[in-house]
Amino acid sequence: MTATSDLAPRRLRDIFGTFASGLTVITSSTPQGPAGFTCQSFASLSLEPALVTFSPARTSSTWPVLRDAGSFTVNILPAEHQHLAGQFARSGTDKFAGVSHTSSPLGNPILDDALAWIDCELHAEYDGGDHTIVVASVRHLSARTDAEPLLFFKGRYAGLSPVRLLEAAS
User: Fold this and answer.
1) In 3D, which of 107, 45, 43, 29 has the Cα closest to residue 76?
2) Distance between CA 160 and CA 11 in Å, rounded?
3) pLDDT under 70 in the chain at which residues?
4) What is the pLDDT of residue 169?
């Protein structure tokens, strides 16, 4: 393996893409109705206190709306919901069109059949270059045990059994 100092965005994306990650949809109830966006950069941060982190792009028009709401739900997607990852990643559309959901204890949308959901309140935000680093306090959560997660690997959707590449939604 040859090291390189090529830090061009395309090269970074290619290298960073070799780290498989789960896919989430972050949702909130807002005065304008339900809002949400697909987020790949999600992780647990702390058990005591219970904190999670995710990083929306600074160009996101949805994150400021969720931030203003003060609470949101992280919906962890199962493998069969790659269509929702694509739907919530698009700008300028009704992201909730045809999407069934219920309300979390904090009143935010929980997508039907989510692999897990985590109800959160905003704890802190930090500068992360072209992204914002969000830290959120966990208030409520639940998970299913009967499904595999939806993963993202090398720019494509993937599953676990064994890691297989799934056709990306267009």
Assistant:
1) 43
2) 26
3) 4, 161-170
4) 46
Written out in words, the top-level CATH class of the domain with range 9-158 is mainly beta
Per domain, the residue ranges of the chain are: 9-158
Q: Residue 38: what pLDDT? A: 96
Which amino acid, residue 125? Answer: E
pTM, two decimals, is 0.88
Scanning the structure block, which residue is given the tokens 């599953």?
A: 159
DSSP designation for 150: P
Q: Are 36 and 23 in contact (CB under 8 A)?
A: no
Task: Read off the amino acid at residue 58.
Answer: R
- The CA distance from 108 to 91, in Å, is 20
Closest residue by Cα to residue 42 from 108, 120, 96: 120
Angle (nearest 5°) at CA 92 between 88 and 94: 60
Cα–Cα distance measured from residue 26 to residue 3, given in angstroms and rounded to the nearest whole number: 36
Check residue 170 and give its pLDDT.
41
Give the pLDDT of residue 161. Answer: 66
Burial class, 123, CB count within 10 angstroms (exposed 0-12 / middle 13-18 / buried 19+)? middle
- The SS3 assignment for 16 reads helix
